[in-house]
Structures are given as C-alpha cells and as structure tokens.
Amino acid sequence: MNKTSGINESEPMKTKPKIKPYEKNPHGYILIQSVTLARIPLAIIFSIVLQTSEFSVSTLIWCAGLLLLIEATDLLDGIFARRHSLVSEYGAMLDPFADSLSRLIIYWSLSTQGLVLFLVPLCMAIRDITVAYARILLAKKNQSVSARSSGKIKATVQAVGSFLLLFGPVYWNITGDWTINLLSGIIITVTLLSAVEYVRDAFLSIKD
C-alpha cells in the first residue's frame, strides 16, 4: 500500500471497456450498413432494366448509371467507416456479402442477355460459397474475416468487366464479339484464384 497516495500498487489497474462502433455512433453505424446493403436492391433494379428494356442508348445510360452507383456505395461505406472509426468485424462480413450478391445478380443478368458466358456467374457462385465457408472457419478461430488483397483485386476486375461487357454491343462492330470469351476468361480466372487465399487461411486455422 502506498501510504502517501492511498493506492494499493499490488492491485491491477482497471481498464476501460472497449466501446463498440455501434455504441460510439449508432446513427453513423446504421448509415454505413445501409449504404453497404443498398448495393443489392440497386443490382436488382439493374437486372430488371436490362432484361425488360430493348437495347438502346437510354438503356445503356440507365444500366451504366446503376453500376456506377453500386461501385460508389462500395467506395463510400469504407471511407466513411474508416474516417469515423466505425470499422467492425460485422461490417467486414457484411461488405463482401453485399459485393458478392450484387455482382452475382449483375453477371447473371448480363449472361441472360448474351453479354457474358454463363460460366462466369456459375464460377462466381462456386467461389463465393467456398469463401463463405472459409470465413465461418476463420470466425470460429477468432481470426479476421475481412476482405483479403486477392478479394479486392477480384472485386476490381469484376467491376471493370461489368462495364466493358455492358457496352460490348457498342464496340463489337470494331473488335468482334470474341471479346466476350476473352473478358469472361479473365474474370473466371481472377475470381477462382481469389478463393485460394481464403481457403489457405482457413486450412491453416484448422491446423493451429
């Protein structure tokens, strides 16, 4: 016991409980998750517009605008979360879920219009289901389930690819529609390879 201060130095210092992002700023936290989830209904609207409208300049503008809005929400939710210290494991799980589902809807819609090979959304679904189970294993081991570098590369390639494929009929007169096979092959390769990092981390977590 320290007689001058009256503090028992043998007692451990009490640490303040860590404030969760939701408790710190509930309105901001809910806003971020809402922006993240907005990608799914936007992708559904994209699908409806693409499949129910005749191919025209106005259809391309509407669809391209929706794709831009989807990508903007993907960028803004992360920036807002980091700027206001609202990054969380829940958000880290919700973001790739919204990404995967929205892009699966987009590429399925493109495939129904003959703008991309049907194998692309099929491989995307296989990859996403595999990664989802890998994330479950990682979560059980209390390891981070946030997006890996390969996942971010995959997201970028899929995002750019969706615009190039959407505008395919515009430049096919110059290049020919062989670009469908080329772009589809690139997207399939990058998509499937992006699962390797997650599967490896999950396998290593099981061994630990």
Tell me about this structure.
Helix 3 runs parallel beside helix 5 (89-112) and helix 7 packs antiparallel against helix 9. 76% of the residues lie in helices and 0% in strands. The longest helix has 29 residues, at 179-207. It is an all-alpha fold. It is built from 9 helices and no strands. The mean pLDDT is 83. The chain has one domain (21-207): Up-down Bundle (Four Helix Bundle (Hemerythrin (Met), subunit A)), CATH 1.20.120.
Lay out the secondary structure.
Elements (H helix, E strand, L loop, with lengths): L20 H4 L1 H12 L1 H14 L4 H27 L5 H24 L6 H22 L8 H18 L1 H8 L3 H29 L1
Helix pairs in contact: 2-4, 2-5, 3-4, 3-5, 4-7, 5-6, 5-7, 6-9, 7-9
The number of helical runs is 9
CATH architecture assignment: Up-down Bundle
β content, as a range?
under 5%
The overall strand count is 0
* Cα gyration radius (Å): 22 Å
Shape type: globular
The name of the CATH topology is Four Helix Bundle (Hemerythrin (Met), subunit A)
What count of structural domains?
1
Give average pLDDT, whole number. Answer: 83
Helix content: over 70%
Major beta-sheet overview: none
